[in-house]
């Protein structure tokens, strides 16, 4: 069972992760042509499919994090997505400019750290302040 203070901290963690993905997803929508161009420049295959999927994952994933719905499977999915975006979008090993390479290294490891946060969310569940938490009886297992 999750203590109330734990649920509050888990809620804040969900919001912190959600803000990042909601912001990124909305920026992708607002600058969709630029995002598609970026994916092309990175050599991402099937950009016409990948771009709307990435945008939807970030917006819908962020919203689901905020409300705390199906957080355990969502956290695993978002961890995998975040690692994939690190490898595809922050490929520092292909950069020759030292300043740009340093920037890409930082972004790569930032994504790996975010994936770690999602793995912790998978272990803890959504907490009581969530749709998942509201669906479990108070004496039952935590969501």
UniProtKB/TrEMBL annotation:
Q: Which family does it belong to?
A: Belongs to the DoxX family.
Taxonomic superkingdom: Bacteria
Protein location: Cell membrane
Keyword annotations from UniProtKB, A to Z: Cell membrane, Membrane, Transmembrane, Transmembrane helix
- What Gene Ontology cellular-component terms does the record carry? plasma membrane
What residues form the membrane-spanning segments? Answer: 7-26, 46-67, 74-96, 108-131
Species name: Paraburkholderia ribeironis
Put simply, this protein is called Inner membrane protein YphA
